[in-house]
Amino acid sequence: MSYKLETAEHPGALRRVAIDAVSRVEGHGKVTILLDERNQVRQVRLHIVEFRGFERFIQGRPYWEVPVTVQRLCGICPVSHHLAASKALDQVVGVTRLTPTAEKIRRLMHYGQILQSHALHFFYLASPDLLFGFDSDLTRRNIVGLAAAHPQTAKRGVLLRKFGQEVIRITAGKRVHGTGSIPGGVNKAVTREERALLLADIYQIVGWSRDAVRLIKELHAQNAALYNSFGVCRSNTMSLVGANGDLEFYHGSLRARDAGGNILFDDVDYCDYSQHIQEEVKPWSYMKFPFLAAFGKRNGWYKVGPLARVQNCDRIPTPLAEVERREFSDYCGGLPTHAPLAYHWARMIEMLHAAETIKDLLHDDDILGDDLVRTGTRATEGVGVIEAPRGTLIHHYRVDEDDLVTMCNLIVSTTHNNQAMNEAIRQVAARYLQGREVTEGLLNHIEGAIRCFDPCLSCATHALGQMPLAVELVDAEGRLVHTLARNGDGSFACSGD
Amino acid sequence: MSANFTIDGKTVAIAEGQTIIQAALAAGVYIPHLCYHPEFKPHGSCKLCTVKVGGRQSASCTTLAQAGMVVESDTPALNDERRTLIEMLFVEGNHFCPSCERSGDCKLQATAYDLSMMSAHFDHFFPNRPVDASHPDVLLDFNRCILCSLCVRASRDVDGKNAFALCGRGIKTHLIVNAKSGRLADTDVGLQDKAVQVCPVGVFLRKDKGFNVPIGKRVFDLKPVSAYVDATAALAKEQQ
Prior knowledge:
The structure holds two protein chains of two kinds.
Chain A: E1 15-24, E2 27-35, E3 41-48, H1 54-57, H2 66-70, H3 78-92, H4 100-132, H5 143-149, H6 151-172, E4 181-182, E5 185-186, H7 192-222, H8 224-229, E6 236-241, E7 253-257, E8 263-268, H9 273-276, E9 277-280, E10 289-292, H10 296-299, E11 302-303, H11 306-312, H12 319-331, H13 342-362, E12 381-388, E13 391-399, E14 405-411, H14 413-416, H15 418-432, H16 440-453, H17 455-461, E15 469-474, E16 480-486, E17 492-496
Parallel strand pairs in A: 6-11
Antiparallel strand pairs in A: 1-2, 2-3, 4-5, 6-7, 7-8, 9-10, 12-13, 13-14, 15-16, 16-17
Helix pairs in contact in A: 3-4, 4-6, 4-13, 5-6, 6-7, 7-13, 11-13, 12-13, 15-16, 16-17
Chain B: E1 3-7, E2 10-14, H1 20-26, E3 50-53, E4 56-59, E5 70-72, H2 76-92, H3 107-114, E6 138-140, H4 150-158, E7 164-167, E8 174-177, H5 194-197, E9 204-206, H6 219-222, H7 231-239
Parallel strand pairs in B: 1-5
Antiparallel strand pairs in B: 1-2, 3-4, 3-5, 6-9, 7-8
């Protein structure tokens, strides 16, 4: 595990280039790059300057409010927070096993979420880079440009996402920020009319998901050198896996592998997460750096998300996605790949799996049931872990005897991937910026590496090319010598020498 | 021959002793209101039911209906004033609808929607009002109190417990629990009390309820507050 380029020896003598701000969930991040007089990259850091107030302001609130409140962390994958909190609070209300209807409704909601989030990320945010190139014409490198050049692809992306949103609306009550999951179960099932509505489209959705996997495979084949080498950062991986090592997004146990694919731990009860995961604080970032406790700070960092999950599991329990997983594994020679761009391939395999799972759930009559909630003996603590679209999500709460939350700890997907994203952008900066003048296209390579991991970041950074960015060159005496700024309307302004 | 008056041009019959709002609601004519409740003496505090009678404004919950009155209610000018009153209520408390379990079942929210309130306009006060979760069955979230005094009246006049009071004066007026400790747990308030069921907003919360009513089935998901003949009764049913 390399920490090269994390900290330069004499930063005061180096020029500083900053991408500020790179936005993420409910907050902002920035990238700083230090260059020497020959434009050699000496230090690269992704700083997350977020303030995660949720852990504090949820304290003193009644526990049943939490699944609805904490989902406001995110507008892209609120269902993940909604369900992770619900799972933690199931334990608080003493429910260890949901009714079949409740569990399947929650699964349906979650797989709808995976489908819409993956479609959003791939088609809206990532595919313009992949189809046009990182340094292609900026004015085309967005969903509008995609719709003009590849209308069928763009349309399918929109409709895939729409379908996932409909699944969420039907199970949670609203497309964004619903209330369907409550401690101990759910507050609604699916009606026959709602099931018929979804069944009318699901086969088309499965077909389009297969085509999406085909598209990303073709992109890999067309430019294997780029896809296999861009930002590669070898690391451990971690995810939930289901029974028999199945790919599992809703519930399972924790498994971690090393960079070579060897199992580090398996079948770990996620309630014991704090025994296996610790977090390091670094003075230059507000986001902590989690690591596997047994392997220490330097060697214990890991990746989560689609690439980790698809390679961490033993099989995918739906047939079409399993065929794709095997082909992906064969392409990688049976060994784990650590190429960030492979995240997109894994993400599309997961989207296909989500579509297949939704199809199976829609044919299960349990989703029409009326046994929605269970109760049990009150407890004072609960841990809920779920595989959110972009990785493992941990919610941990303590609740007092008056039903008020006294402690909340959230470890979100982006936090797990902190070190990996830093390593990836260091690789990319070293390869593309070395000895060159900074341009928008080069900047976009760095953003592209971040996008592989976290569509919440990508969402803001890739918002139709309008994310405000400012790059400043400062000389060794701290004088501003050159700035390149992308304004909110997508226009560019340069100043300085 | 019964006595009548007109409200927005519609003729409304008067039963003896009725106020304007009582006669109007009985005739199916909606007048926005929050502190008015058909089972309690009028309080006249929210002023949302203000109407214009003979060119003068007065609270329709405290004004007796009289034969021949010409009442204006659903006018742009009056609705502008009502919207402003609602906006002030929103900024005086901490009304975070997105995480409130009474969202969809809240008269304040429903009335705001009905009056097309788009934002609170004024600076929020963000008062510091800790919740009282001491009672095993009922949680009090004072953040949402609009000082309608319905719980005070219900506890005093119906439950006979006198468990609540409005304390302080002017802008510092606030709801308190009438116990030496100030805690709800130290009263004899129970789930069946009228005081617990009458809150038009989200102060009184049953601990066994939470978000168990799905979106789409809540009282004001079904129709707007102005379309209810008796929104108070619909809410009471929901809260039982």
